[in-house]
Amino acid sequence: MGWTLEQLRTLAALADSGTMAAAAVELGYTPGAVSQQMAALSAAAGRPLLVRAGRRVELTDDGRLLLAGAREVLAADERARSALAAPRADRRAAVTLGVFGSAASAGFGPATALLRRRAPWVDVRAVEVDVERALDAVTAGPGRSPLDLALGLDHPDSPSPPVAGVTAVPLLTEQYAVVGASGSLPREPGALRAVMDEADWVLPPLDTAFGRAARTACARAGVSPAVRHVVTDTAVSLALAESGAGLTLATPLMLALRPTRCDTAALPDPSGGAQRRVVALVRDAAAQREAVQLVLTALLDAFGGPDVAPARGRARAGAAERSA
């Protein structure tokens, strides 16, 4: 049934006025145009909608049934038009954003604060995701609603393959550092390499992007890490390193997840050390929405752009995260 809004509007006007002439005046049509609209609507419905009653017309039972639905459709159309015509401050546009531990603690608060000032009509709704599955959360699958965008990670030493329909926008590049108990890490590269080679290690599993990237970074530094503790939770990894159970790798955002007295030292890597990129994974279809673009701009400003942040300094309290 392929009727149009104009045909439904004509049906409602005719039901209210009772004559073709009166409906034509109300709609700004000619009586002939009203008749044509009703004939097309009857054809689309596949049954008669009007009967003559002297100089007036009345709706058939099918016409009355269709009229009830037509009024609902016309009211919904009016609400939609009113919403678009309303001042921007009166609108609400929901944007779903996937987040994970360290990136959420560093960027979500500043980004939403910027949006409250710039575009208070944008309603950002955070959804926690496993950073290893951030791409899946954006692309989703049958029967699942995809997120508009998600914070994710990209490791140059273990790059993610491109996915059609999704763009990765760099937000921040961080340098990994070696992390160990207080006073355990020498600064001289040769001595540090010897400590790294002899120590136990706390690293994520090899089947995670961070786990692969960490082992590659150690190999580039001339070290084959003896992984004694396989841990995906960053806060737990830092706690074990602080206790002297082993060394691990971490970035500034990761170190900010919990207060720690750990030592940190730059990787003895001639190529400049291992990095990770915090990215925004954006569905190309969602990126066409103004609200999503505003959220993306706020994230870029909150993270300060993709410049490299060296891993050094003490951390503050925060929540734990997995593989990040």
Helix content: 40-55%
Main sheet makeup:
6 strands, mixed
Give the class from helix and strand content and strand pairing. Answer: alpha/beta
The SSE string, one letter per element, is HHHEEHEHEHEEEHEHEHEHEEHE
Mean pLDDT: 87
Radius of gyration: 31 Å
Shape call: rod-shaped
Strands across the major sheet, in which order? Answer: 4-3-5-12-6-13
Residue fraction in strands: 15-25%
Task: Describe the model.
The protein has 324 residues and is α/β, with parallel strands linked by helices. It has three domains: 5-85, Winged helix-like DNA-binding domain superfamily/Winged helix DNA-binding domain (Arc Repressor Mutant, subunit A); 91-173 and 277-307, Periplasmic binding protein-like II (D-Maltodextrin-Binding Protein, domain 2, 3-Layer(aba) Sandwich); 175-275, 3-Layer(aba) Sandwich (D-Maltodextrin-Binding Protein, domain 2), CATH 3.40.190.10. 42% of the residues lie in helices and 21% in strands. It contains eleven helices and 13 strands. Helix 1 crosses helix 2 (20-27) and helix 2 (20-27) packs across helix 3. Mean pLDDT is 87; it is low at 310-323. This is LysR family transcriptional regulator. Keywords: DNA-binding, Transcription, Transcription regulation.
